[in-house]
Structure formats: structure tokens, C-alpha cells
Amino acid sequence: MTASNDPVIECRSLWKVFGEQADAAMKAIQQDGLGKEEVLEQFGCVLGVRDASFSVRKGEIFCIMGLSGSGKSTLIRHVNRLIEPTAGDVLIEGVSIGDLDNRALRTMRSLKIGMVFQNMALMPHRTVLENVAFALEVRGMTRAERFEIAEQAIATVDLGGWKNHYPDQLSGGMQQRVGLARAIAADPHILLMDEPFSALDPLIRKQLQTLFMALAAQMNKTTLFITHDLDEAIRIGDRIAVMKDGEIIQIGTPEQIVTEPADSYVSDFVAGISKLHLVTAARIMEPIESFEARTGPFDANGWLRAAPGDLLNRLADLSIDTDLPLAVETDGKVIGVVTKKALIRGIQGRSREDEGAYANV
Amino acid sequence: MRMSEETTFNILNPFTSLDLGIASWADGIKGWAIANRSAIQPLKRVINDTIMGFEGVLQAIPPVITIAFFVLLAWQLCGQRVAVIVGVSLIALGLLDPTIWPLAMTTLAIVLSSVLICIVIGLPIGILAAKSDRFHTIIRPILDTMQTIPAFVYLVPVVMLVGIGNVSGVIVTIVFALPPLIRLTSLGIRQVDSNVVEAARAFGANPLQIMFKVELPLATPTIMAGVNQTIMLALSMVVIASMIAVKGLGNEVLRAMGRLDAGKAIVGGLGIVLLAIVLDRITQGVTQTGRERGYRHWWQGGPIGLLLWAITFLRRPSAAATEAASGGDTVQISSASSEG
């Protein structure tokens, strides 16, 4: 994914405490380092987001993954300031949105940010076309203009024939396509997706994921994508942040999250994830030097070759045809070795270090 | 606070010996009302003009045309079934007594004026009550009082303030009929799906846009239920209002009661019932179609739909015929009007 280095969305140590004594609770947290339970006990406040910092580059799809109640929906609502933070700051394209007055904030929302909701939140009294045109209507665009743009957006999500229908005439999957069309109609720079596909059945979910990824690649929008489904996060995200109890506990690429989980919570999460399409040869191979040091000189001539970027699935296919290890080669030079044992452990998701995997080849 | 002279204070039954003088204090309202008569004049004129407007129109139009108008209105807004009910009820009303029609129209004018003013006052108050919890808490006991306090209690101060006649009649009717509209407007707006409101905010809508593009349209069925209740309560005040010299059907009932003329009382009473049926069916129909119509525009059904279809048909007979044959838009319109 092409990405320049200027962050489009930047969260700086964002805190959200819900409750009447939020400010007092916030002070106590910062001074005495109170935990979630203590805050609830002493102040009757709920800690929604705890010191969240991350930045999303232009064109990147950044997934926030966590179970329900982990604060991810609260976090995403700070990005367009539907929720005011208790402490910390959010910057959109370098502008702190906490400093905007109401009018500037509304302009920013209607021009720069599109949002898709888990429950669709379409307006039942408006047709598909009128729903999709809403952000443009709010901006004060004329009827003819906004309907023309909205029709294009509707065509993009393949709902051309449905523009004059009402939301309750559409299936769930179609409604969420309308939600998507509504979010992209105003051509915003940023898409906020709050568990957009969670309420849909698996087949439709997969279809919409594919549609969304195609759209995202084509339109190059910066996307913040909330999900509770790690498979979805891995499929869609360029990077993933894992949240637990309001706190971001790990940020990394899908491969990093799966192969180097930060703690037991994340590793429990990724335990069931298939590594076949995630992990590369470079990660599981043993470097040629260490292999040579262990087994002595060897001749890799008859060995099948793989590239460092090959996924486990490809390595497994290669290994089927040979009893020998695989040689990982780049620019005609062998840089590492993937033994059968390392491959199997890789598929299981255990790293070579836990195992002494190279003990006996 | 003073002790009554003949009874001594008894802790177990303290009330007989205590006289806070509330009744005589409250009687001061009467004095206040008389003293402030002139202040109320502009309001009085507005209400009077509203009544005269309705009454002038309703009395000037011949009954048959009025009936035709209400039938067409009911057909357009609520469909054929309601149109038939409205037509039959109005004809029955006219047949009750040779002199009843003008009286019924006077009553209708009073009721419509009251309801119109209720909507003008009640909608903003209801919206405010939906938006502010504090205002809602303050206004609830006031609404309870307005609905439960016997009308005779405020009849006297209102008459002192405004004098007898139609204007006082409308004012006492408003006091009684306003609360459900405020309550249901507030309820309707509070019940609007907060997710949809949030979505509107997320797309940059300002509070006014959220109000007029999201909240009010979605609250309309509930608000219309409030209007319906207000109309029914206004009709139920007709007889009481006639005690302060409001003319119309209520006055007929009151006079018949005075003369123990059961026949006249029944005729007047039935007239009120028939008016109630007409107004109730029309407003309820609007409530339902707002939700159920859903899939087509209001002008595609009813007499207007029929008219529009006829115009297109006459202008381009060949084109319309082919479209009808091929199942185009025209067919939808015509089938809609025959359903609706």
C-alpha cells in the first residue's frame, strides 16, 4: 500500500472516563495510577479509553480489534469528536479537533470524514438516494448536484436499481452497502468503520469485505476499521491495534500480531488463526550461517527453492514434492533453510526459539 | 397562619385547628384577573380572529360541498375506507335535525381553533421537553394539573379575565386538551433511534438540521397520535365550554338538560359523537399512512393520484396506454389509487 509518512489521523494519549466525577477520577488516575476497578469503586466512573496513542498514515487501513466492551467503539468516536475526550488530543491532518468550534467541527465532519455504523443507522423515512445524499445535503449542495453524486456512489456499491427504495425494503447486506455509499458519497479523506460487517451473516460479510477492500484500494482512503473479528482484521488491515479494557496492548502488522503476540491475551486470540496465508519464509527460516554452524557444511543443490516472501501455504506445497529441506533464496543466493520441522511448527504458530526446532534435522 | 378561635390545637388532628387561608389567597387570582383584563386583549383578539376565520368559512360553504371536501381529504390522506366512514358520518350528522348543521360547524370551528392553537403552543414546548430533562421535570406536574383539575375551577378566573364567549371557551379547551400533545411530542422525539441521530451528527448535520430532517419526521406518527388525543379532548370540553356562553352543539345539550328535554340532548350529543368520529378517523389515518404508506409518494394515491393519472392519460393517450400495457410507472399510479 502506498503511504506517505504524514499521519492523517493521530491520537495522542487519549483518555476517556465516563461518569459525573470524570475530572476528579482522571486526576486520581494520573496522580495515583488507579486501575479500572478502583475508578469504578471510588468515583463511580467507567474507564472507556486508557492512554490510547496511535497514528494512521495516508491510505492505510488501520484496524482496531478487541472484544465488546474493550472501548474500541468509544475510541473511534473520538476521531470525529462524537465523544469528547477527558484528556489527550486527536489530530486530523495535523489539526487538533479539540480546538475546533462547533461550526468548524461540522464542516470537518461533512467534508473529511465518512462513517459506517454497525447497525447501519440509515434514515427509515428517506429513500436510498436521499440517505446517500445526506452528507452533501447537510453541506448545502443543490438537489440536482447531490443526487448526481449520490447516484455514482450507489453505482459503486452495485445498488443501481434500488435508489428509490426505502431502507426497510433492503436486506441487511444491501443496507450496509447503502451505509458504505453514504460514507463515500461526500468523497471524504477518512473513513471510520465501526464494526460495519459484524451484524451480517458470514457469506455476505465476506462479500462486503471484498467489495470494501477493492474500493479502499481504488480510492486510497485512510481508514480506521473497528472489528471484534481477528480474521477480518487480518484480512483487511495494513496494521492492527489490539485493545483490551480500554487500553491498546499491541500495534503491529497482521504478521507481527500473529507471530509475536505481546502478551498472553493476544496470543490466546491469535491461537486459532491460520498462519498459512500470513507468515512468510523469512520468518520461519533458519539463517544459513546458523544452519551451517549446527549441521556442518552442506550441499543445497538438489533442494527446492523458495523466496523469503513466500507464505507458509506455498512452502507446504513445495515441501510435498521433496523429502529435503527448502532453501530460501534471494538474488540467486541461499540465505536460509526451512526444515520440515520448522515448517510444521510455523504452521502451528510456535516459533523456532521455543522449541530448539533444529536439534535433529 | 392563625389558630381558629373555637378549636384548640390537637396534635392528632391538627388540620381542623389550622387555617392557612389558601382559599382566600387563591381567590385573589380573581382580583388579579379582573385587574389585568387589558393586558390580555391582544391574545384575545388573535384567538377571536382564528375562531371567526374558521367559523366564517365553515358557515359560508354549503353543507354538501363541505362534506365533499372532507370526503376527498380523507380519501387523499387515509384511503377509501376512511373516506366512506367520513362521508356517512357527516351525512348522518346533517340528518339528525334540520337545524343542526350550522351548530355543528360552530362547534367544529371552536374545536379546530383550539387544536390549531394547541399545536402552535404544544409543539415547541414538547420539543423543548424532549431536549431538556430539567424542563421535562418542571413541566410534568404542570401537565398533570392541567389534565386533572376540574374544568369548573378555572372557568371562573378565565371568565373574569376574558369575559364570556367563544374566546374563553377556546382557552379552557386548550388548558384541558394541550397536555397529551406536549407529552407525545416529547415522547416521540425521545424515542427516535439515537443511532440515526448519531449518524446525522457524524455527517456534519447541525442541531436544526437534525431536528427538521431526522427527529421531527421520525417522531411524526407519535406527534400525530398526540394531535388526535388533543382533538378528542377538545371535543369532550364542548359541553362544559357552553356554560360560558359558547354556542354550538354543546349549548344545545346544555339547554336540553336544563329543560329535561332528553330528545334534544341526545341529538346534540350524537352530533358531537359524529364529529368526533370524523376527526378521529382522519387524524388516525394520517398517523398510520405516515408509517405504512412508506413506499410511494402521497400524490400518487387518492383523488390527486387519480387526477394526475387522468391528465397524463388524456394528454398522451397512446403513450400512457403502451406504458400501462408494458407495466410502467403509470400502472403503479393507477393501482396505487385503487388500493389507496
From TrEMBL, chain A:
CDD domains listed in its UniProt record: ABC_Pro_Gly_Betaine
GO terms for biological process, alphabetical: amino acid transport; glycine betaine transport; response to osmotic stress
Catalyzed reaction equations: a quaternary ammonium(out) + ATP + H2O = a quaternary ammonium(in) + ADP + phosphate + H(+)
GO cellular component terms listed in the entry, alphabetical order: plasma membrane
Enzyme class: translocase
The entry's keywords: ATP-binding, Cell inner membrane, Cell membrane, Membrane, Nucleotide-binding, Transport
GO MF terms, alphabetically ordered: ABC-type quaternary ammonium compound transporting activity; ATP binding; ATP hydrolysis activity
InterPro entries named in the record: AAA+_ATPase (IPR003593), ABC_osmolyte_uptake_ATP-bind (IPR051921), ABC_transporter-like_ATP-bd (IPR003439), ABC_transporter-like_CS (IPR017871), Gly-betaine_transp_ATP-bd (IPR005892), P-loop_NTPase (IPR027417)
Main location: membrane
Cell membrane found in the keyword field: yes
Species of origin: Pontibaca salina
Descriptive protein name: Quaternary amine transport ATP-binding protein
SMART domains: AAA
PANTHER family xref list: GLYCINE BETAINE/PROLINE BETAINE TRANSPORT SYSTEM ATP-BINDING PROTEIN PROV, GLYCINE BETAINE_PROLINE BETAINE TRANSPORT SYSTEM ATP-BINDING PROTEIN PROV
